[in-house]
Design goal:
single chain, 437 residues, 6-stranded parallel beta sheet, 43% helix, 2 domains, alpha/beta, binds uridine-5'-diphosphate-xylopyranose, Rossmann fold
């Protein structure tokens, strides 16, 4: 393998660790920096603080190329490109909180041989502001590249190694060239690589906007199909058939047309709101995104109505929630539908039990008053109804005859249309999905 450029990665969350491990796998030495000394210590011991399939193994495989430190100087001494992957959580106003990004910018020395490569999702215009800050601080030689990240939790390693596209926004200088070079093996043959990734090399503002627009569009697709599902429930159509028929139109495509009980996670809710705010702050009222957010909030609550339809008032009813994470194969609870659902159920007087194979520790920090069960069968024992909240594979293969024996009631609400209705009904249970006529 030709010698690969060493890089720094600032922030060891999902994006930072996956980026670091991915570039180490491609042959770079990677200097990972985080202000959390405990986390860095654990990483040095080979303990990975997040659940992401394949990540522990990938880091172990590339252990000697990955260096962990709390001192940003280690990255500056060893690398020209400093990938920034710190959190940009929403503030009360819905704008992204850029304090962690600004802390990194402030810590940079005057240098004309370094560049910040922004992986964190930031509002369009952030790059311009940071370049202005660099100028004001006498660091105008410091380069800036926007390189938004599109990985999905749960399949982050595959997404890194097999990107649909790599977006690089820069001023056409050495730093942008160097970032493209790093990604080269993952790009298509047309771009000199042997991977599937198309390259979009553009200006900084456009690169920033690609990320926000892509996430907002995907969220819009989900809210759209959720509303179609709700109409299907009124009209007797089956949304799965409708989505299949729609998705075969190549202009629409089959992905992100799965109705359910709302989208969550660290990106969609935050980025939709951030784009709405960004538009609003620049004087444009982005009407559509208000609806995308509102539909998503209402969708989380529709389960309550479904339960009441089957059980009457929920006071004293036992409800089992299967799955708590915002989606399968992650322990991430950020903006998970289970947060709203468990709170609403308890407010309605229900007794809630819950099980998640991986996210329980995270869930315990956020959800009160719920009985955390040993496993799925324990959660649903004596339950009047069960709600599938997150479609972990192990719930698809439950023995429904055993489930029927253990439950006190018969109601099964499949919040992700992931179960086999015939198998559930065959065990004498009542099945209701989302938008299934
Ligand atoms: C998303 C984007 O997909 C990714 O490109 C970006 O970098 C970060 O945000 P992620 O949040 O990891 O990734 O999860 P994703 O698989 O996109 O799912 C987000 C939410 O949408 C989940 O709650 C999921 O259950 C929901 N979803 C997804 C649906 O309800 N229906 C669908 O058809 C797809």
């Amino acid at each position: 393998m030709a010698e690969r450029e060493p890089i720094g990665v600032i922030g060891t969350g999902y994006v930072g660790l996956v980026t670091a491990a991915g570039f180490a796998e491609l042959g770079s030495d990677v200097y990972c920096i985080d202000i959390d000394a405990g986390k860095i210590e654990r990483l040095k011991q080979g303990e990975i603080p997040i659940y992401e399939p394949g990540l522990t193994e990938m880091i172990a495989r590339n252990r000697e190329r990955m260096h962990f430190s709390t001192d940003i100087q280690d990255a500056l001494d060893n690398a020209r490109l400093l990938f920034v992957a710190v959190g940009t959580p929403p503030t009360y106003s819905g704008d992204a909180d850029l304090s962690a990004v600004h802390a990194v910018v402030g810590a940079m020395p005057a240098s004309d041989r370094h560049a910040l490569v922004m992986k964190s999702t930031v509002p369009c215009g952030t790059g311009k502001n940071i370049k202005r800050l660099f100028e004001e601080q006498g660091k105008s030689g410091f380069r800036y590249v926007s390189c938004p990240e599109f990985l999905k939790e749960g399949s982050a390693i595959d997404d890194f190694l097999q990107p649909d596209r790599v977006v690089v926004g820069d001023d056409g200088d050495w730093a942008g060239d160097a970032v493209v070079e790093l990604y080269r093996p993952l790009l298509t043959a047309e771009h000199g690589g042997e991977g599937p990734g198309e390259l979009v090399r553009t200006d900084i503002a456009s690169a920033e906007m690609v990320k926000l627009a892509a996430n907002a569009f995907l969220a819009t697709k989900i809210s759209f199909i959720n509303e179609i599902a709700n109409v299907c429930e009124e009209t007797g159509a089956d949304v799965l058939e409708v989505a299949k028929g729609m998705g075969l139109d190549s202009r629409i495509g089959p992905k992100f047309l799965q109705p359910g009980i709302g989208f969550g996670g660290s990106c969609f809710p935050k980025d939709v709101t951030a784009l709405k705010q960004l538009a609003g702050n620049s004087g444009y009222h982005f009407q559509l995104l208000n609806s995308v957010i509102e539909v998503n909030e209402l969708q989380k609550r529709r389960v309550i109505g479904k339960l009441e339809k089957h059980l009457g008032p929920l006071v004293g009813k036992r409800i089992a929630l299967l799955g708590l994470a915002f989606k399968p194969n992650t322990d991430d609870m950020r903006e998970a539908s289970s947060l709203v659902l468990s709170a609403r159920l308890q407010a309605a007087g229900a007794l809630v039990s819950a099980f998640d194979p991986i996210a329980e520790d995270e869930a315990r920090k956020l959800i009160q008053g719920v009985r955390f069960a040993e496993d799925a069968l324990d959660a649903l024992t004596d339950a009047d109804a069960l709600v599938l909240v997150t479609e972990w594979d192990e719930f698809r293969t439950l023995d429904w005859t055993q489930v029927a024996r253990l439950m006190a009631g018969t109601t099964v609400i499949d919040g992700r249309n992931a179960l086999d209705p015939d198998a559930v009904r065959g065990a004498g249970l009542t099945y209701e999905g989302i938008g299934r006529g």
